[in-house]
Amino acid sequence: MKKQFAVIGLGRFGGSICKELNDQGMEVLAIDINEDKVNEYASVATHAVMADTTDENTLRSLGIRNFDHVIVAIGDNIQSSILTTLMLVELGLPHITVKAQNDYHEKVLLKIGAHKVVHPERDMGIRIAHNIVSKNVLDYLELSDEYSIVELMAGQRVDGRSLIDLDIRAKFGCNIMAVKREEYIDVSPAPDQNIKKGDILIVIGADKDITRMEQALFDDDDAGTM
Ligand code: ATP
């Protein structure tokens, strides 16, 4: 059976989640307090309804308990976001993802039982900053305060060298999880695999180790083009 999703709040974030879930063939209930928003998403979501989700009876009457995953994308109105989340937790929803406006909002959401909290603006800001500082860093995913996964573009310095030869694990304490070359992705590459300029290496490690490795091996002016 198809998974059932509900998206509450159809701003830019909630709206794009709604569209993407629909594109992936999922069942999506789109909910907003604003009638114009509901009309806008009527043809995108499986169903679109106008409702104030801070009202428990309204939530119950929508049959929200039967959904597999609810995404709360109410932004500016932190009070509504918290109240809605609290009621979803009390109703026993198995997966609740909530967009937070700031760190205090996140703390409260996690305390009251949200399963996942996201900060789309902050996270995208961090990723773009890493890409601006070093053009070899194509993408960046923070795993914790100290550890990350990064996508690095191979340049002249590593061109034609094997993973054994580069000896990244011993020298820098990082691990190459995968190597992407055009459409092909090699997960857990063999030690004798040769790197080519323009390959994309997906690396996991401590931030300080990744930075050392990036400066030593990837800080080229002539890295491959994206
Ligand atoms: P984005 O940055 O994603 O565009 P935002 O952070 O500016 O969004 P808002 O526009 O404040 O977020 O809220 C997103 C949507 O949530 C709005 O369309 C708003 O009408 C809706 N919303 C706010 N309160 C409620 C509520 N109590 N019940 C249902 N929807 C609500």
List low-pLDDT spans.
none
Q: What are the bound molecules?
A: adenosine-5'-triphosphate
Structural class: alpha/beta
Mean pLDDT level: 90
Outline: elongated
| SS element count, helices | 9
The CATH superfamily title of the largest domain: NAD(P)-binding Rossmann-like Domain
What is the class of the largest domain in the CATH system?
A: Alpha Beta
Q: What is the string of helix and strand elements?
A: EHEHEHEHEHEHEEHHEEEH
Radius of gyration, in Å, reads 22 Å
Helix content: 25-40%
CATH fold type of the largest domain: Rossmann fold
Distance between the first and last residues' Cα: 39 Å
Largest sheet, strands/sense/barrel: 6 strands, parallel
Query: What is the spatial order of strands in the main beta sheet?
Result: 3-2-1-4-5-6
Strand-residue proportion: 25-35%
CATH architecture of the largest domain: 3-Layer(aba) Sandwich
Task: Describe the overall structure.
By secondary structure, the protein is α/β, with parallel strands linked by helices. The chain folds into two domains: 4-118, 3-Layer(aba) Sandwich (Rossmann fold); 123-218, Alpha-Beta Plaits (2-Layer Sandwich). It has helices spanning 12-23, 35-41, 56-61, 78-90, 103-111, 120-133, 163-166, 168-172, 207-218, and strands spanning 4-8, 27-32, 47-50, 69-72, 96-99, 116-118, 137-142, 147-153, 175-181, 184-187, 200-206. A six-stranded parallel beta sheet has the order 3-2-1-4-5-6, sandwiched between helices. A five-stranded antiparallel beta sheet has the order 7-8-11-9-10. β2 (27-32), α2 (35-41) and β3 (47-50) form a beta-alpha-beta unit. The longest helix has 14 residues, at 120-133. It starts with a strand and ends in an 8-residue tail after the last helix. The model has no long low-confidence stretch (mean pLDDT 90). The structure holds adenosine-5'-triphosphate. Adenosine-5'-triphosphate (ATP) is lined by residues 8-14, 31-34, 37, 52-54, 73-77, 80. Pfam families: TrkA_C, TrkA_N. Residues 2-118 form the RCK N-terminal domain.
